[in-house]
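Slide 14.
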Amino acid sequence: MKQQTKPTRYSPYITISREEWARQRDDAALVFENDISKLQGLNEPLTSEEVLAIYLPLARLLNLHVTAAQQLHTTTNRFLNNHTHKVPYIIGIAGSVAVGKSTTARVLQRLLSAYPNHTRVDLVTTDGFLYPNRVLEQKGLMNRKGFPESYDIRKLIQFLANVKSGMEKVSAPIYSHLEYDIITEEQQQIESPDIVIVEGINVLQVRNREQREPAVFVSDFFDFSIYVHAAEKDLREWYIARFESLRSTAFQDPHSYFHRYAHLSDKETVEMATHIWNEINKPNLEQNIEPTRYRASLILEKGSHHFVQSIQLRKT
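Slide 15: predicted structure.
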């Protein structure tokens, strides 16, 4: 494969153009047209061309990694004359608010589950591991929701440790974006998956303000990690557009935490979204999320049109 590399001679990544990357697809895990609308997020455009050019090659690469891990497990069992149960392959997906992580995660879940050697693919979002609002209020962290300190990291790490230890059934808390809080009466059940995709803005973090030197990090449990990247100005525009769409949809629900924004004017909506971005999302991006980009196994570089324009793959 012809690869386009960065001028930096000793970069840890190979940079691959969209065109070159698209040639690496196979059709073993095709997504159907009628699935597209179910997989894309709000204001996160997804086309069949994007699936073919970006996500099919990525699914193929991940399938090769998962298959290699399964073969290594078989080889190790043979060496030890043992028959230990194989553990799930864990994929982490990180990136800013509004960058399209959820769409990436859903598409990969759909594509990877089409391969016969790993049909059970679960998707878990770290939103469920945010502290409940009552705890955030007690800690004075409601305006820092999404920052590393707003997550119950110990609970998330314990969940991942249980998954990676091969427990047949593990539960994860569920977050409601409508209520803007944890749903205490429900749990997501993870039962003997082949692959678990963990999606969240801070999953590649290696520091926790509650512990000066944590012994274990969330990313320690990942077999492969993906960072979805875009320029800050584009992220801001996408966030504002999403906020405008929510004002006329989800915010209209009286039960919505953000119902108070439902009757804002167009100008007020843009001003409020810009304020939230500048006061919360931008600082979190610059201080906590963006610095983790180069810890990822692979980086998806998005252009202003919201589609991936190049890929950076870590050398091995």
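Speaker note: Residues 4-8 have pLDDT under 50 and may be disordered.
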